[in-house]
Amino acid sequence: MLLFDSNLSIPSLKKLKEELKPDVLIPFNASEKNKSLAAVQNIVSAAALSGADRQSVLINAGGGTLCDTGAFAASVFKRGIDFINLPTTLMAQCDAALGGKTALNQAGIKNIIGTYHFPSAVLIEPGLLKSLDTRNLISGFAEIIKTAIIADKKLFRQLSDTDISPNEFSRFAWKAAQLKLKIVNKDPYDKGARQSLNFGHTIGHAMESFFMNDVSALLHGEAVAFGMVAETFIAFQKNLVSIKELNAVADLIQRHFNLPVLPESAFEQIIHFMSFDKKNYSGQLIFSLPFGIGSCLLKQTASRDAVISALHFANFVFQHNQ
């Protein structure tokens, strides 16, 4: 069975059909609105009507949204079937298609439903990125930056010192993927070290939820880019990073991302969405924060006032792009 992004180019889809020879084709309109239980019902129904059984394999050909949704469908169809991810975006190739987390949105909240279901394989085909637009390439670059900040000081220095065009981003994807898999293998079920991969995502997911139904909805990497700047400022407030390191993170991200300024009237809504983050406990907002460049501290708390200051700082960084 092939679950494919309905926006996939005709030549790419034709090539996949010729090489994979799927017995069932399931189109998917990839958007955050469609990362839902309703979409999973459609996928499961198509699989059932095709006669699929527990030996069937679902191949997910698309970006992070499709891989998340398809993986969830595979995890619940007949209590779990094998699946293969074939990521077609930079975001998915370096991050979203890896690691075995599945996720759906519900009630306007990002990734509130999910399971752990690990792919039988992840097939990386760089040629699939050729038709990707610049905005989606830049979005994927956010996860490469994130991985460098939390796990590889040398990679961060390379990203900072190089005048990289979006068409060159993919050459860093394999390194980011290797770093992620190394962390996942230590902690597959997100009990400890894997939580470092959530850096930028506490605020980032809240930003996605806030903009989800807006005409100017943010891509995942764009929201995470804003989140990384804000959360690095929280780390600076806690003396975990220096002013030089804070500026280095802000400068690198500001150079590549042209993001909207968040209205101050939205700050409380962002904090409301942050309250649903999976890391939280005992009513506290919990963060994974950089400890210098190249390492990360888990289970870091931050007050409401600290978060508001961080949102103001991120606005200051990105207002220069307006």
Question: What layout of secondary structure does this protein have?
Answer:
Elements: E1 2-5, H1 10-20, E2 25-28, H2 37-49, E3 57-62, H3 64-76, E4 82-87, H4 90-96, E5 104-106, E6 109-113, E7 121-122, H5 134-151, H6 153-161, H7 173-186, H8 201-211, H9 220-237, H10 243-256, H11 267-274, E8 286-290, E9 296-301, H12 304-319
Parallel strand pairs: 1-2, 1-3, 3-4, 4-7
Antiparallel strand pairs: 5-6, 8-9
What does this entry look like structurally?
With 322 residues, the protein is an alpha/beta fold. It folds into two domains: 2-130, Rossmann fold; 135-319, Up-down Bundle (Dehydroquinate synthase-like, alpha domain), CATH 1.20.1090. The chain is built from twelve helices and nine strands. The protein has helices at residues 10-20, 37-49, 64-76, 90-96, 134-151, 153-161, 173-186, 201-211, 220-237, 243-256, 267-274, 304-319; strands at residues 2-5, 25-28, 57-62, 82-87, 104-106, 109-113, 121-122, 286-290, 296-301. Helix 5 crosses helix 6. The chain is globular. The mean pLDDT is 94.
Considering DSSP H and I runs of 4 or more, what fraction of the residues is helical? Answer: 40-55%
Ranges where pLDDT stays below 50 over 5 or more residues in a row are none
Report the strand count.
9
Number of domains: 2
- Measured by DSSP, the beta-strand proportion falls in 5-15%
Category from helices, strands and their pairing: alpha/beta
**Could you name the CATH topology of the largest domain?**
Dehydroquinate synthase-like, alpha domain
Q: Please tell me the CATH architecture of the largest domain by its name.
A: Up-down Bundle
| Main β-sheet description | 5 strands, parallel
Helix segment tally: 12
What's the shape?
Answer: globular
CATH class of the largest domain: Mainly Alpha
Series of H and E elements: EHEHEHEHEEEHHHHHHHEEH
Going by CATH, what is the homologous superfamily of the largest domain?
Dehydroquinate synthase-like - alpha domain
